[in-house]
Amino acid sequence: MDDLDSAILARLQRDGRVSATALAGDVGLSVAACHRRMRELERSGVISGYQAVVDPQSIGLCFEALVFVTLRDRAQLREFEAAVEANERIVEALRLFGEPDFLLRVYANDLAHYQQLYDEVLVSLPAVEKLNSTIVMRNIKGRITLPV
Fold first, then answer.
1. What pLDDT sits at residue 74?
2. Alpha-carbon distances of 135 from 68, 110, 113, 125, 144, rounded to whole Å
3. 135 backbone dihedrals φ, ψ, rounded to 5°
4. Are 104 and 69 in contact (CB under 8 A)?
5. Distances from the Cα of 148 to the Cαs of 11, 64, 80, in angstroms?
6. Residue 12 scores a pLDDT above 80
7. What pLDDT sits at residue 144?
8. How far apart are CA 57 and CA 63, in angstroms?
9. Residues near 50 by Cβ (< 8 Å), separated by ≥ 6?
């Protein structure tokens, strides 16, 4: 990866819908050369996909919580991870070193909906020993832009 690839990645992270013509102009390449580089970045897995960034509140998801999870038995680790992946309200899951074992980001409509999700889903995830929730007051920097 060279400086041109880094420039392409930086621009695409800011605006994934930028036209190839505008992108090529921004990084100083021909459109064909820019397309080739983008395809290679996609093929090699550097660019893993494109998606729309949706404002949670605009679709009624006004409650966000971070849930720290400690497992009682790591023998069920794969089952826990599969159950987390299957739940659409759990939008992010990070496995951590030390304790707790996981950090989950969960969205709900409101506090009552979160309580229902907590009581019916989170406590019944495989091997859960302890849950500790923290309510997100405001997301200051929610969009991931990697330094390239």
1. 84
2. 11, 11, 13, 20, 20
3. -85, 135
4. yes
5. 10, 29, 33
6. yes
7. 76
8. 8
9. 16
* Sole residue written with tokens 């200051």: 140
pLDDT digits (tens, 9 = 90+) for 38-84: 999 999 999 999 988 899 999 999 999 999 999 998 889 999 999 99
Tokens of 38: 């983008």
Residue 30 to residue 20: CA distance in whole angstroms = 9
* Cβ 68 vs Cβ 105: under 8 Å: no
Q: Where are the alpha helices (DSSP H) in 15-106?
A: 20-27, 31-43, 77-86
Amino acid at 62: C
Q: Token pair for residue 11?
A: 């621009």
The Cα–Cα gap between 83 and 125 comes to 7
Q: What is the pTM of this model?
A: 0.85
Alpha carbons 97 and 101: distance in angstroms, whole number: 7
**What pLDDT is stored for residue 145 in this prediction?**
79
20 has pLDDT over 90? yes
